[in-house]
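for the record, two folds in this file. i put them one after another cuz i was lazy. first one right below, seq on top, structure tokens after. the second one comes after a little note so u can tell where it starts
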Amino acid sequence: MEINEAVKAMAALAQASRLEIFRALVVAGSEGMTPSALSETLGVAANTLSFHLKELSHAGLVAQERAGRNLIYRAQFDRMNALISYLTENCCQGQPCMPASGPTGCAC
């Protein structure tokens, strides 16, 4: 992941509603969620939800698929993992991390 892609992804997640939407999609896993299910679950108005989903889609964090009359939104786990890898790339002073049992999963 390049720095501009990381900035775009982090900017998309740097808003409370978008972060909640993304986290809900992560929990939903590969099944994803319809906008109506997201709206009901999170208590977000449909027009507001649409705006936030568009921002997450532009950052590559969310994908949309049509299933009949419904749209299904899914978290893009490969993109999320690429962002996490980018952010932790230089932990342990650039050396491969040693497994640890702590909350970071790293012996740094």
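(here's the note) second protein begins now
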Amino acid sequence: MFPKPQTPGLRTAESGISLVELMIAMTLGLFVIGAMTAIFINNSQSRRELDKAAQQLENGRYAIQILRDEISMAGYYDAMASIASPPSTTASPCSTDVTVWKSSMDVAIEGVNSGSFPCLATARAGTGMLFVQRASTAIAAPASLQPNLAYLQVSLCGDEYVSAVADKPFRVKLGTDPFDLQKIDCTTTNHAPIRQYIRRVLFIDRNNVAGDGIPTLKRADFRPEALSATNPNVQALVEGIEDLQFEYAIDTNGDGSPDAFSETPAANQLVNIVGVRVWLIARATDPTPGYDASTKTFQLGSKAALTPNDAFKRHVFNTYIELIHPVGRRTK
């Protein structure tokens, strides 16, 4: 068999595509790539916004939990059933004298909604600050006591409650002082637990709000020594917390239940605070492109409503927290 001769001038089936066909294919491909890119960008932006919203809500909830832990434990003094002292009118948050600390233990909480404590001038203007004092829930080993910290020891021995010694039946002293109060068996070598005495302020630092700074909830722990650049010991807790406001529940008849609420309790009402109503604003850490916060209004208690002029999303949290231990001493 011989191959069939081909006719000159005829195109074969293997011929390529034309330039027009190639340009059409490239154009269609660019359309597909553009559409896929737009979908990817939109999905990425949506994902970022969801992440920011989740972080904002988580920061707000975490801040509320921190405040709940601190406020509910305010006034915890180990086994003390009562505080035998004349009613105090201030907890003296800026005092470094442990004698003053001991004499004002009946004020578990003291706060401001505007202004600041003189010894903590870095707080953001117009935001709330809350001072709490209590004993640590952890027992300190006698060998671990530090000279620049204060500690509480409460006697469990009934004989020591009728002793003429001035610092019985409980002591608030420096770590260098003796702690030899006894347990329930009244054995001189069997000492009652020793706990660190905590005095701290929860506040929003103004230094985190300037420029592009992120507003941050912080904690300042005070120590019984001269105030300096390193004292109080300030720690950042939760970022994105922009404002705090407090309202105090006051027990006027001694039954442990709130009878009145006030954002500015009188000095003689501080010892009767049995709960705190908390408002806070959690702000996103990054702005949202195209978002106009000026269309939103945020209200914290009786404070003037906030109408921001930026692109940050915000959320208001509100809760009521009972002071467990002052209430418990009143209801026994």
